[in-house]
Amino acid sequence: MATDITYTIVVTNEDLRTDTEIFTKSVEDYAGDPPVINSLVWDHENHSASGTYQLTINATDPNSQDLTYDVVCDEGSTTITQTGTLNIWSVTYPNFGSDTTVVFTITVTNEDLLTDVDTDTKVVAAEQPG
Length: 130
What we know:
The strands form 3 sheets. The protein has a 4-stranded antiparallel sheet with strand order 3-5-8-7, with no helix packed on it. Strands 4-10-9-6 form a 4-stranded mixed sheet, with no helix packed on it. The chain contains no helices and 10 strands. The protein has a domain at 36-125: Immunoglobulin-like. By secondary structure, it is an all-beta fold. A hairpin with a 5-residue loop joins strand 7 and strand 8.
């Protein structure tokens, strides 16, 4: 959002003659800096179908604002739930019939609604017949 600031400049010479100039400048309001996703940490690096895994999002805000977190994926039958801790998510995969690539999009938002977005791709191994 921009704010208009009006300046009035008055110049007087030694004969006491004056000249006045008024001008307006539009200045963008400073909203601060966006948060930063520092790392994405999974409790296990290798993922298998029908498994449940935990994702921890490590993020900071340079303005010390509170953060909100969101995790979505491109595979519709994968269940993603936020645990009791804001930055920790539980991910449960269905029983895929074959190895499946799942792309996660992680968004962190601060109070000024500034965001940082990261993606993480996991190849989920199909369940082996037992």
